Every structure is written in structure tokens, then in C-alpha cells.
Amino acid sequence: MTDMRIRDIVIAGGGTAGWMAAAAFAKVLGKDCSIRLVESEEIGTVRVGEGTVPHLKLFNDLLGIDDVEFIRNTSGTFKLGVQFNDWARLGDSYIHGFGEIGHDISLLPFHQFWIKARQRGVAEDIGAYSINTVAAPRGKFMPSATDVPKNSPLANIAYAYHFDAGLYAKYLRGYAEQRGVRRTEGKIARVEQRPDDGFVAALHLESGERIAGDLFIDCSGFRGLLIEQTLHTGFDDCSQWLPCDRAIAVGCERTGPPTPYTRASARPAGWQWRIPLQHRTGNGHVYCSAHMSDDEATALLLANLDGAPLGEPHRLRFTTGMRKRAWNRNVVALGLAAGFLEPLESTSIYMIQSGIARLLEMFPQRDFSPVLVDRYNARARFEYERIRDFLILHYHATERDDTPFWDYCRNMSIPAQLDDYIRLFRDSGRFYRDGEEMFATPSWVQVMLGQRIMPQGYHPLVDQMPERDLTGFMAGVSRVVNSCVEAMPMHQAFIDKVCPAPAMETT
After folding, report:
1. Annotated catalytic residue: which of 27, 57, 79, 116?
2. Which residue from 54, 100, 48, 15 is spatially nearest to 345, judged by alpha carbons?
3. Hey, is 208 helix, strand or coil?
4. What pLDDT band is residue 506 in, cutting at 50, 70 and 90?
5. In Å, how far are 30, 47, 63, 131, 391 from 176, measured between CA atoms?
6. Packed helices 370-396 and 348-361: angle between N→C axes, nearest 10 degrees
7. What pLDDT, in 10s, does the model give residues 329-339?
8. What order do you get walking across the sheet with 188-193 strand by strand?
9. Is 79 labeled as catalytic in the residue annotation?
10. Phi, psi of 174, rounded to the nearest 5 degrees
11. pLDDT tens across 358-373, in order?
């Protein structure tokens, strides 16, 4: 019987995507496969502060990396959510916090009761009922406590991370190499394909070395060396909904304790990020070149830094969208090679992680069953489109009319499913998650309310609660959340005690 097992995996490109894949394959596949990664230090990557969503903890748990080790090795901090400034109106501010809002009653989510209470004038802003959104602006943080009742907000604190992406890739490289991954330094000069079916057979390096493989992972960034330049897979452009196509990134000096949240501030033709690390602050300006020049965008970014810039700004060009197939023949694209959605909700690393997990779940044999390939691509597209629509929501649900960019976003047509989500929520505050889409109900609810989509009504079962009980319920939840936040340590104090990073250069 012919052995059809995958024996040789070749990863084209390093960076976060390449080394995440190498580390995961080394951990899960062990000695069943030879894993080789090809990268060139000459090509390099832009080292910026990176934000994540809570799912990354699952990936680190798979590798056996605990929070303390991770944070220390990446100069990281903790993240309770994202603060959005000036998005619906100039002067507006809200936090999309991770985790739950209040607590549900029977079949109804908490926000349904909040809608009625808000209409009656007995409820605070929705952010007052989540431990994350109360703790974040106060600079408080702690992981979930194990010595409190299970129904306490302190027992279920959802959090993510800020970290130096370059340091994370470096750490994962060490992890992977210790487990047998071979790294080859060099540039890929030519990709060899099998003449009969077009599958990739080998990579030819400028040095003359030929590296053959069964399965190839394309982590070559925007250029998509294997998935696009070799296999001509095609690209679905979504810039009609997400028109920003440029970004400028620069680090700056720290000027105070790191905030336990990412900041996303809307600008005249896009938005600016702020990601606090232990040794510096990462900043960037994402913008639309049709409405702002590169020089204007750079000047605006530099004028809105907290501290002195560290080095020269890096300029990036991109088109939002995804490959028509992330898996084509024996090539699977991860990271920027698979597509790009701007980092407004810190989904870039999540999409690498989910692509790796999906591939391991559907891991093929050397015949590369089309059934597996088609299912992988269908799931990848579903995930991409649901995240895409969540990002579009931030732009489209705005009342801003102060610049041509925001006029365009407010008036543009949007995907049908997103339009359905908005109309249903505006009608009666209802949201129904589509299967396994990444963002759950609390995320959609917080962003829709933060973007001033206020429901006209609420679920009729809410009226089963007497109004005096409703008032007490709202006050009680707020009181519990505030008392829990008071008990939390300051974010900086927690880092200093548990996981300080070693001193390092800030450039």
C-alpha cells in the first residue's frame, strides 16, 4: 500500500504567520513531518505593537506557553478591549470590551432589559455594566480570580494582549527550532511546479538549493509568492466597503503607565491606533489615499503621538480583500498572503491562528482531497466575510459629515447580511449570531450602540419584569461591577509584580 501521509512541510516566509505555523506544526505533528521554514533577513518585517483578541490565549495554551512567559518575552501588556473615539460623532467615545455585559435572565440577554431601562431613564451607558469597560479606563487589570464565587464578574475576566510582533516571532522561532523545525536563510528565486497538475514541487533559492515538499505554506506577505504569483489564485477586493489603502506605523516613547486597552481614534480620512507595550507605544495611521496624501497622513500621525517618535515612520500599501481560495492545490496561504483586513478590531493574528487550526483539523494526505480543500476554503471565506462586515459597521454607522471620507462611508451601500443585522437591531435590539462567526453578541451590541444605532423597541418578554424590579436590577449590576473593579490592582502594578519584561532598547 502506498504511504499517502504528508511527510515534508515547507513554509515560505517567516514573521508572525510563518513562525506561528512552524510552532503549531512542530507541537501537533511532532516527528511525523519534517518542517522547514525559508526566510530572508534582507526582506525583514515592520516591527509594530500588535493587538489581539482573547483567542490567542488558546493558541498559547496549545503550545504550552503561559501568560507570564509570553508577556515577559514579548514586552507585552494586557488588553480588556478597544476604545473608539470620534467614530459616530466628533467627541464620542466608547469601549468595545471583551466578555459579557451584565448577566442574562432566562432566555433574554442583558441588553434587552437595558434597552427598556434606558428608555425609562433608569440606566447608565451600556459600558457601566461590564467589568472590562469599567476597569479599562480606570487602568485596572487582573486575570480571572479562582477564590471568588463562580457568578462573580471577577471569576470570568476576558482579556487579550498587546505585544511586540517581532519579539513574538523571535520567541516562536526558538520554540519551533527546539522541536526540530529547520530554518533556511535565503531568498526564493524560482518556484518549481509539477508539469502534470501544477502542484508546487519545490522552492529554488538564490543559493542554488532546491527544497522539495508535499505541503507548502505561503507566509510571504502581501505578494503571495506561491498562492498568487505562482498559482494565480485571484483576489476578491472589498475596498468599496473598506476604502482605506495606506498605513503609516511608528513607535514612540512611553509617557505613562500602559493602558489596558487599545485606542482607535477616527481621523479625517481614516483612523489612528495606539498600542501600549512595556518599553514603548506602538502607533499607526490607517487612511484612504483618495482623501489624504502620504505627507498629510504622516504629519497627522506625528502630531498625535504621546511621546517622541522612535525612528522613522514605515509606510505600507494594501488592498483590503482575500484570495479567492486560501488553499489552492498543495499551497495554503496564511496571514497577509491569504488576504488583509485592517487591524481595527485586532483580527490579523486571530485569522492566522484560525487558519492554522483549520488546516490541522482538515489535515490532508498527499492526494489533497478536493472535499477537504473546498470545506477549508468555505470556512475561511465565511470567517473573513463575517469579520469584514463587523469592520464595515464601524465606518458605515456614523453620523459624521465633516469630511468627504466620512460622507462616503455613511452613504455607501453595504453587504446584505450586515444590513439585515442593523435593521433587526434597530427594530428591537435583537441579534442572532451566524453559526460560528468570530464576534459574539456582546461585541455586536456594544459597537452598534457605540455607533448610535439605538433600538426602537425591545423583546416583549422584558415586560414580565416589574419596572421597580428593573430599576433595582440595573442598579445592582452596576454596583457589583464597580465593587469588583475597586478590588482589582492597577494594570502597571500587576505587570511589575507578575511579568515585567527585561530591559531592552526602545528603537
Report:
1. 79
2. 54
3. coil
4. very low
5. 10, 20, 10, 37, 33
6. 160
7. 999 999 999 99
8. 188-193, 200-205, 210-212
9. yes
10. -60, -40
11. 999 999 999 999 999 9
